[in-house]
Amino acid sequence: MIHHFLYGSFAQGPFVQGGKAISDDISFAPPSAPEDDSELAQARRLLDNGQLEQCRTIIARYWLQNPYEQGAVTLFSDLTKALGREEVALKLDNFAAKLDGSLSPYKHHQEIFEAGYALVEICQHELAAMLLKELQRELPDDPLVNYELGFSLMSLKRFKEARKYFALAVNAKEDFDAMLNLCVCETLERNLEGARRLIAELTPLAESDEEKLELAHRKIVLARLESLSGKKQLNSRDWLYALYGTILLRPGIANSSELKDDVTQVASMLVVLRGLLTGLSLETEGVEYYSLRSRPISNALSQLMEVDYDAYRGPDRPDQVILLMCWTTDILGPHAAFIENSMKRTLFAYGLSPTAPLPIVPDIIGCLAYDVVMPWEGKYQEPSNKDIALITEQIYARACDLESDPTLLRETQEAVDYYLEKRHLLVLNNPEAFPNRPEYTAELPDSEAR
């Protein structure tokens, strides 16, 4: 299977806690002997105790330094078995079986490639890139090896390095997927001339409906970036607009450590959101929530906007509503219902992860953050319904107090001014130009200095 960076199927999610794997490839020392404190032994103990993420961290670090260490490959295979990824474990086991010390690993190209490809499938791109680089030294002209290596590097946001391998893949075989991802890298490096050239070369290669959609998306991204060509540096608001046509309300909030006062932070976000909707002349007749987790914030916004709120009522609702979610992952289960863009429903998410791919991008995003705990979500215990109702009223009251705050008024006006002239390239309430909301592939550049 060939991966697309725009519409790829690689988003299996991070490793999570749980499960236990037992392996008989380690002889346990008697009680009187000193405990083996090697990295492999530490990782094995963590795996046996079900501490999967901690195990992954140690074994990945070790394997990166020892690409052909049989014990590292075997232990990582056991880890993937504990995660229920038997098909990945099989390929890793096949690779490990060849690493018995009697033969050069460089003679086992197929096993190395399959192991690297399997690691791509579970989003372990750093490990995949390590193995695929080893293989690329042996097979420098192989288009598939160069493509998969470029994909892994691009997923690690090493765009300049990825370009080299996509270019090699394209030179060996004029392939739409390789050329598309090369165009993505050129775009993310802001090499607009290179992106234009590649779009021209891609046009006659686009045959399927999916390829034509991706080509059209590349053209839109290029148009948005061209509108920002006067800016020396692009910030997160610029990139979210350019890549997805989505709105970022508060680019200054980047992580949970900055969210010092939860109630005030949520209240100020709702004030800016309401101000933006008013400034863009977007009528709102109701507020919705899909997940119960988002009910309190929906309630507070509905009071602030003086409209009704209730649960999601299906795709054919006649009135103009905004559907709120606390976190973009809240949409994962029912995301298919919201792929279609509609004049009647706007999607807002309080927070979006800069790194986790998602099947769709909300029309409006509050902030980029790796984690946000909402005020009504207890860190140690579940709050009662009475506590939730109290916090909701506190958010509403605080939002009323902040409506005339000069800092928030200025922030709201800056957002309105930024997006007003870009309305024709926004996904928000623009279903004729964008009938479907785009997929979020988390390709945001890490650096603001681009």
List descriptors.
450 residues, Serine Threonine Protein Phosphatase 5, Tetratricopeptide repeat, six-stranded parallel sheet, 6 strands, 48% helix, 7% strand, globular, disordered N terminus
Structural notes for this entry:
- The chain has 450 residues and is of the alpha/beta class.
- It folds into 2 domains: 39-226, Tetratricopeptide repeat domain (Serine Threonine Protein Phosphatase 5, Tetratricopeptide repeat); 245-425, Rossmann fold (3-Layer(aba) Sandwich), CATH 3.40.50.
- The chain is built from 16 helices and 6 strands.
- It has helices spanning 39-48, 52-65, 70-82, 86-97, 109-121, 125-138, 143-155, 159-172, 176-188, 192-202, 209-227, 236-244, 262-279, 295-305, 385-402, 406-420, and strands at 247-248, 286-289, 308-311, 321-327, 345-352, 364-368.
- It has a 6-stranded parallel β-sheet, with helices on both faces.
- β2, α14 and β3 form a beta-alpha-beta unit.
- The chain starts with 38 loop residues before the first helix and ends in a 30-residue tail after the last helix.
- The relative contact order is 0.09.
- The model is unreliable at 1-29 (pLDDT under 50).
